[in-house]
Amino acid sequence: MTLDHFLTESSGRITAPTTRLVITPVEGIGEIRSGDDLAGLIGRACGKDLRSGDILAVTSKVVSKAEGRTMPAADRDAAVEQETVRVVASREHAGGTTRIVENRLGIVAAAAGVDASNTEDGTVLLLPEDPDASARAICRRLKQDFGVDIGVVITDTLGRPWRQGQTDAAIGAAGLTVLLDLRGTPDASGRPMTATVSAVADEIAAAADLVKGKTAGLPVALVRGLETLVTVGGMDKDPGAKALLRPAGEDMFRRGSAEAFEDGRRSGTKTGYNAGYDDGHAAGYEDGYAAGYAAAAAEARRRARSTGSR
Q: Disulfide: which of 18, 69, 174, 217 matches 135 by Cβ 3.0-4.6 Å?
């Protein structure tokens, strides 16, 4: 697959579109099992064609398999609980319960990223222990074996709030810029951009999935044409894909709407019975608090009428 895309450098910052982007699936890697030398297998499959400035997009499942991150399918619920730090939203449906959670890596995903697809029958896969470290190890090994400075993106499939379908995103990265900050640079009309920070590692992951696919047995893609994103010698210094995680203080949707409403309703009910109106406690839960407080106040009036009629 080829896409015309342009990149130029200005004062050390990438500002606008320069070259052709070519994404090619890497063939010949084969099925990965626990303990396999994944970096070596990738190197043998594409080493002769690898150049400095290339980027490899590697599906997280093969990383997880090589690292032995599997559990019996019967223990799936325990695996999800083990990987979960915080429940964001939970919904009951005909097929069971879907939980959107923050996992121990800080990634918000369904079932903490625990997956039963493209793995042996009777098993589930957990995400890699440390995807950024996995990416660094591949970068380091390929530089050692082939003398090339490359970037590596570890990819996984994620859903998107307010959008149907899934797309691949970067959950690990090394050797490349993951966020391209264009704030302060002029747009096409000459006006300075004030909010544009492009998640280029996610864009690479999504584009690479177009040639890897989900069922073709092609877990790695070679991306060529984005040399200016590769940080030569920076694999141990760059922040990795962790830089893509939104800090809690900037997260406007820390809880699902139903969960926030229910938290507020319970808080409002309790406060309405026990402590009266409490503005501070209502912050962030206005709708739920109001519903709970109103129910408590109505019940208090009913009780007062009942008592007064005796």
A: 174
Cα of first residue to Cα of last residue in the chain, in angstroms, is 83
Beta bridge partners of 91: 98
**Which of 167, 77, 88, 170 shows the shortest CA–CA distance to 126?**
77
Sign of CA dihedral 150, 135, 111, 122: positive
Q: What is the token pair recorded at 156?
A: 């996984």
CA-CA-CA-CA torsion sign (69, 211, 169, 75): negative
Give DSSP secondary structure letters for 145-160: HH----EEEEEEEEEE
Listed residue (206, 226, 182) closest to 13, CA to CA: 182
Predicted TM-score (pTM) of the model is 0.78
- The per-residue pLDDT for 24 is 95
Integer Cα distance of 198 and 183 in angstroms: 10
Count Cα neighbours of 299 within 13 Å in the Cβ-side half-sphere: 11
HSE-CB for 122 with a 13 A CA cutoff: 0
What is the phi-psi region of residue 233: left when phi exceeds 0, alpha when psi lies from -120 to 50, beta otherwise? left
Q: What is the pLDDT of residues 258-278, one digit of tens each?
A: 777 888 888 777 766 555 445
